[in-house]
Amino acid sequence: MEYMIYWKYMKQRRYHHTLLVQTATFLVLIAGLFWFVVPFQSVWADEQDDLQDTISDTQKKLKKEMAELAALQANLSQVNASLTSTQQLIQRTQALLDQTTQTIGQKEQEISNLEQQLALEKQVLSGLLQEMYYTGDVPLAEVILTKEDVAQLFQGNDSLLSTQEKMQQVIQDINDMHDKVAEEKSSLEETKADHETLLTMKNQQKQALVAQKNDVQADVTDQEATVSELQQKLAEMQSDLNVLTGNSYDASDIKDAVEYASDKTGVPKGVLYGFLKVETNLGANTGQCTYKEVEKVSIARYKKYGSKYKASIALLYSRQELFYSLVDDLGYGKSKKVSCSPSGYIGQGGAMGIPQFMSDVWNAYASQIAAKTGHKTPDPWNLTDGVMAMALKLKKAGATSDSAAVIRKASINYLGSYYANYYNGIVYWAKNYKKLFD
Fold it and tell me: What CATH number is associated with residue 102?
């Protein structure tokens, strides 16, 4: 009995000892964890503060650079307006010059005709004078002997004299007209010289404006590149901040994704549903072809229509390279499905995921998508990223209301051309999207 009591006592003692050791160990672990986590929390907080400060500085710099870009664009618009005005004046002056040159040619032809007419009239007059001289050279007695009536002799001479006077008057009129036309031609030549001087001056002005335009355009291009780089950096930093603060977002279904994208961009939910419905049937159909299949069909079609499609073939391969790089980054294989080449017209497939973006278009929006969703590498097949991409493109197209005119403009921007069935489908589902979830 005493042995059993002792054994029970020792068991309880070992139990309490074990419990004490476990408790102490737990407290040590908690303390260690506290001392381990707290410094990292401090580091994370410092990193967030530093990143937020950098974002703030970048936003200020971006604002300044965008103001400079706006000023350059305004300057470019003024130069373009001056260039257009100068070009119009050059065209008008050239037209006047051409017209004046044509009129001078007509005057020269008139002068030539008058000179020919004058020569003819002088020749006829010379004949008349010779005839009069011949008659006058015959002795009067001989004339009387050969004429039945002396009165006819004097009558004939009077007629010749009258004709001579008339012809001399015609010659004088022709001379006067010749001088007048020559004077008009001289005046026209002076006008032509003025037009040529003005044309030379305006062409020189045009050349100066073209040079100025090229300089300003180069500045605009550089400034746009600077703004684009800052926007991309800002989006990347915002994405990093979202990761640090745990603000990345993942929608659970299409409704969540639309709600989130609409809230972040201002594009109405109905408009998003309309585009999502006609593009991919709310994400259910994001493509049935591999890029190799797209390549095969597109190349066959392009070759059929000749060398003018060389640029399209180059674009196809450029997009294919971007696509393979993207799916590699996302961990997908090269056989990831994309839209097939369209059957209704000459074109290429390759549109990706929910928003049906080409790879080059996706790359252009990637940093903006990351800034909104917090996903470091946005995925066009991801519900949140895909709907956000669509919303960002629609916002850029001005689709911040659900009016038919706004949707029409946005549909042309999104598709690349107007297609009635596409537009009508978007309008219908934008107004009746609730039926999708009945």
Answer: 1.10.287.1490
